[in-house]
Design goal:
By secondary structure, the chain is of the alpha/beta class. It is about 60% helix and about 10% strand. The strands form four sheets. It has a six-stranded mixed beta sheet with strand order 11-10-12-13-14-15, with helices on both faces. Helix 18 links the parallel strand 13 and strand 14. The chain is elongated, with a radius of gyration of 43 Å.
Length: about 850
Amino acid sequence: MLTTVAYELDADHYATLLKRNQQRLMRQRSSWTRRVVYQATLIMVFVAVGLLVSEAWLGGGEGKWPALALLVGIVVLGVQQARLQESMLRRIAEGSCLVRGRRVLEIKDDGLRWASDEGASFVAWPAIRSLETANDDLLIYLDDVSFIPVPASAFASHAEQADFVALLRQRIGGAAVPTGTPAATVPRDLPVAGVGSAGRPSGWRAFLQYLRLGLRLAAFLPLPSRLPSASWSQFIALTALGIVLPVVEALLRVGPDGVFSEEGLPGALFHVPMMLFAAWGVACLARRQRQTLALLTLLAAVQVAVEALYLLLFHAVGAATDFLPREWRQAIDYLPPWWVALAFAGAAIRFLGLPAGRSLAVVAVAGLLLGLPASVVYHDRSLWIEAHDEEASGDFERKHLSLVAEDAFYLQPRLLERELAALKPGRPGVTDLYFVGAAGYSRQDVFMREVRSVAELFRERFATEGRSVLLINNPKSVAESPIASATSLGLTLRRIGAIMDRDEDILFLFLTSHGSKDHKFALDFWPMRFNALDPRRLRELLDEAGIKRRVVVISACYSGGFIDALKDDNTLVIAAAAPDRNSFGCSNEADFTYFGKAYFDEALRQTYSFVEAFEKARPIIAARETREDFPESDPRLYLGEAIRQPLAAFALARQVASTQPTAANARLPAVAGGKYDELLSLFAVPDQARQLGRHCLHEMSLVAPGQLVKSQPDYFGGLGPDSPYWVELVAAYQRYAEGLCSAANSETALREVYRDLWREKLAERDMDAALKLFRTPAGRRWVAAQNEVAREAPERIGETRTPLLAQALRRLQAEQARILESYRREAERRGAQAAAGQARP
């Protein structure tokens, strides 16, 4: 009977046997139910993709090309996966000693002897688990994974192979395991199924173990004693899960009405090449390049765990906005990449068993390739976003592109010319105050509101009517006010310097915006680019204007850096913060910054002295910053000796003027303030008054002389735009409209109306509960929302009412024209009749 066979095995044949063994293991390790479910799921996925492609393609929709690309991508991915598997098995086979030279397999009494030119190995009978023939090849299994291949070419016939297999089964079945004898001396480089190690979990079990391992490593816990097998399939699956998690979160947040955003793909995949570089770099550093895939799979598991934990933490922080410091909330965005970097570095050091010297290098590589790029490079990862909203798009254009609209672009120079032309010259013997307010930052409404409120305050208390100019960067004011730039500010200052009495009058310049550490005042109106305004440039603008007496108030972070450049004997400079400190309160929904509220809205309502108001405001600002856990801004003041006495004299003059009753004050009812005034202070009454005034002027413009002569050229008896008297007519109507709208919508009158109505509708005993509610975070948010509604409602109503009013006016004018034409014809007819009667003899 045949007991010895000799054979040679080529790489292709060996790769085929490896694939056969891998398929056998998959059948053994998955139940029939699991295989059916897997195949059914696969079929449903292909059917769903096919339906998606056919619907998009046959329906002619815009999504047909993305749908086809999705199908092609799935097919290509499947083909690449199959080719990758074939390639890996081929490389394993080519690198094995089993395909190098002639092999001899001999049946002995106590086991199998397996010899080649490189040496011999022995396998005891108890170490052999089973035999299998596949396509006439014989596979002798030592365990669930390792096997000895014997090709069909080793036998002369099928009968000879059958006898050899029968003898093997007889010897294996009758063998007893000797006590104390090793079960097997396994030949080196035995074939292994897949790429995992014998006995390690693979497939779905390994995937689930990697998810648990990722959570363990993200918590900086030590590695377990046994790790699941690493493979490219595991890495791809973990990476895909890390990409899918934010999509699932966005789907839950946005809802099913969202759309897929292909623009987010580069950002969603940004971390993948960084992970490849990091794993390869750490493996090279440890001189263990063969462990690159294992490190890469560990890194993918950590990435998934951190992504899931970050999403939970992000929503938890969002819910705790009122309780966490602002710095903590901002730091959350930078947490994930550095968390991944440190967790991976710790896992790699333990996995590779690196000494302390190389451990620091591993941490540096991980931080450089994983933490730093994701922290400094912006990458939008949003793959599921809200569907395009035409109304929101229109809002974006109104808010951010309003300045580049053609009408606004050409309107701005005329607005500045109008404001400068309307300035009144200084009065001999009277110290007049000229007010210039600049709101520099367009993306937050607080600066616009603040500068408007301060201008209104100065009009009421410092008589700046006709001597006030506002420069505002804000989309809502682009059709009403000149923009704030270094150029417009320079033109304004030069105009004031030309018409003021430089020896008597005083300039009050108020600048409010953001500031930078290098002491630059922000002039921003995207997408326009404005010249920088720093202390040196501001001093140049003031000097070029020839203005002698100056009060300059700058409300911005680090604004104290302007004082040294601006100070002289004729200048008072007030800064909201020290040169190295922040100022606070620039939230979009606020009406004032912290400094503006304390200095202008509180202190300057109690005194006419700019210096005394500063001393009153300092403790108010400090107390608020302490109460809200902000570092002290430390406002600064410089007072020149030569301007001290003129400012004191001006304050005294305003104090005396305020004691003289005016007709307007005589008409106002005397109303006690108290709690009703406190309630009134919460609401944006100045903004509402201005809004009503603007809409009044807009509606008055519909019946302005220019509009009337368009429809009826003879409306003014032949007086038209070509007449030298037309300018006087337009100016007279403008004064009438402004006077009417100002008187009908004054802030003082509006406050009195609100106060009286609240006293009528809300009893004083209920005021404590109302004020208590409004002092809470929820109450403050409600008040802010109510103020926004009050500001936007008239605008929305005006947008609806304007076309209706214009249409009604057109009908009225057409009716008037018809009546006038009938009257003209009747007059002509009567004139003709009278003439005919006189002509009779």
